[in-house]
Specification:
The protein has 411 residues and is an alpha/beta fold. The chain is built from 17 helices and eleven strands. Strands 3-2-1-4-5-10-11 form a seven-stranded mixed β-sheet, sandwiched between helices. Strand 10 and strand 11 (345-349) form a beta hairpin. The chain starts with a strand and ends with a helix.
Amino acid sequence: MNEAIAILTGGGPAPGMNTVVGSVAKTFLQKGYRVIGLHEGYTGLFNPAPRTVDISYPMADDIFNRGGSFLRMSRFKPTDADFDHNFNLGFFTDNNVRLLVTVGGDDTASTANRIAKFLDARKYPVANIHVPKTIDNDLPLPAGTPTFGYESAKDKGAVIARAVYVDARTSGNWFVLSAMGRSAGHLAFGIGEACHYPMIVIPEMFNRTEITVDKIVSLVISSIVKRKIMEMDYGAAIISEGVFHELSEEEIARSGVHFSYDAHGHPELGKVSKAHIFNELLERKVKQLGLKVKSRPVEIGYEVRCQTPVAYDLTYCSELGMGVYKLYREGKTGCMVFVDAEGNVKPLYLKDLQDPVTGKIPPRLVDIHSDKFRSVVDFILSAITPADYEAARKYLPRPEEYDFHKILNWE
């Protein structure tokens, strides 16, 4: 029986999933391996009758440049009891599977590591190589290398955000956008920078003060009033959904949001419209202040996850997929594949990235001390400063309370 590899996709989709799967399949098929695709993430490995598909070369060629994921995805996280009673060892032994390729974020990678250790303890060594993806761009890859899917999501998000900004200018309205990003503000910041949004709010900005609903709304109002002083009655603010992760339980209750949680303990932010919540809070504050402002909410979320990947991700994901074979032939296992800026393939081991105490991979945050971030704050954002206090009194009784630097305690 020919040696086989198995490949699965876990978590949520990102542009380039099919490019990775198609590139891995093409590479291994040309080397004589059988390629088995597992549907529904890890579910199949804990099921006596997993849903599988033998991926042929024409099939791989058909899917590699498409959005979404040909292999059905799942956030299933096996418990210790699943490993003890439900693990499908027969899938590996009966199909002569020698390598498990997993495509996903840090949760998917951690489970892959558990599976490799479990199989090794039972004297059935299976190599496992992970391909890191997330549109959040928050995995700590070296030298600022993006996670695959981020550039495509940012590009498609910017298409939406540009159109919204034109609507704002055309109609004389304000728009409040929310962008995905579980714990880091890369996507919101990237879209906001690309579209010259006058206000961008990400969790990293609150490095010197607690995040509160009032501070978030005050930042948007600061921008609204600054633009009025500039004789511009329109604009847009983009807020990272990650701010919800940093809000206290009291603040979340004050916002009126009730979250459910996924198998990994993360609040399921996709089930609620953060833009609608932010806009409602803004409208309430604007009314109290007597400002004449019309605002509308726009959510940037699921719309960007399954977009067709842009050229950057088509190239990057192809290199990652082919890089899996290189690492496998070198005997590497328990690692993530990494391709540097020069196109060199290297292994990244989870043990080198994870927190030594918790075992979790810490998120890569937006560097608010970088020249890029400071330039956006200084030259793109519009917000009240001390020089605007006198003019702002036409709209606000105490404009100093809406000073951008004072809100963030950056003085």
